[in-house]
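Comment thread on ticket #2218

A.B. wrote:
> Attaching the input chain for the structure job we discussed in standup.
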Amino acid sequence: MSQILDYKCPNCSSPLLFQPGTQSLKCSSCGTEMDAAAFTALDEALKTGDAAADYGTYRGAALDEVNQQHCNSCGGELITDGTAIVTECPYCGNTAIITQRVKGALKPDYVIPFKIEGDAAKSTLRDFYKKKPLLPKHFKTDSQIDKLTGVYVPFWLYDCDTDSQGVYDATRTRSWTSGNTRYTETSHYLATRRGELSFDKLPVDASEKMDDAAMEAIEPYNYQDMAPFSTAYLTGHLADRQDVDFAKCKPRIDERVNKSVDDSLRGTVRGYNSVRRRSLNVRVTKHNISYAMLPVWLLNTKWKNKNYPFTMNGQTGKMTGRLPVDKKKAFFIFLPIFALLAALSIALTLVFDDGSFSLPLVLGICIAVSAAIPAIVIAVMAAKMKTKPSRRLSKVYERNFRLTRQSDVFLYKTVSRQQIQSSSSPTRRR
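C.D. wrote:
> Ran it. Output below, let me know if you need it in another format.
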């Protein structure tokens, strides 16, 4: 069996490409459409090969630094790195799927097909850029936006059941006043909570090339669109196989699981003024790991020797990115606002000046205020350039939380005193 797989139209032998938002492949020449499910027989053949290995190691043979293949259409040489599953022939444009990297133990379990097609993704990006007046013009050019690339990114999906215990220091306070003294009584409690919580397909990207925070920022994916893996969905887009084993991803998974468990247990400690975690013990009772390909639109823009990545969820359209501020644009926005405000304030000062105040001082204040207002406007615009949210909790992947034990034990009380100053001040003698 050839290590290169491509999908050809049965009518004209032109490439068949998957159409985002559908379940079909379409001929790039004559328009013939075929259901992606019709190609399941080809994918069945990929199940043979190396026996499935533990997910804690790379599934299959070691990664090659460079791999040499030949295009089935024109015979041209295809040179890829060791992770590329799908590549495009530089000579004829034919999509080539390297089957050796999705065969046997290397075959993904699931795929979520692209739902947002290329023109829609570019249009969304253009609309997004229009709302960024401080963005350098270079980012908005068609030649740059056309570099937006659809990539299937490898992810590990983690299912697990947990049995966890959290211990929390909690306080309840009450206050009262007696004379000129305010008293605050604080009651200290030890709150213990134990509960069971399951997680369903908690994702973590398995690609060294991808920024972990960016991949988490475009979550969640809608698993209702998830399908058994088929190479037919990969046509028309790029794809990489996993090159980070699950063992290396486990600390990131553990962090998200622990954070979510803590949040669920802490949420049951109610009726207190403050709650602080003392300890958390998370025990995984059952787990399962699967391997999936998820759709991502990527664009990396270089400006002033720095890279600015943009990422979009290829299913939902959720975006994240890091954008620079064009200082020249900021200056030309600042200057006319400042000039108008300064001229107006100075003119009004000169018209209404009656000699009551120092004229240089008043003019200085006018100029300072005139500069502060556009500076605030620029600062607000610059703040909107930061589109990268913090890492997400894993609430969307949680299932069946059940509190199995709880106890609240009173420990001790403390009382603090604070002198209250009289509101009336002593009358001064004249």
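A.B. wrote:
> Thanks. Noting for the ticket: The chain has a mean pLDDT of 81.
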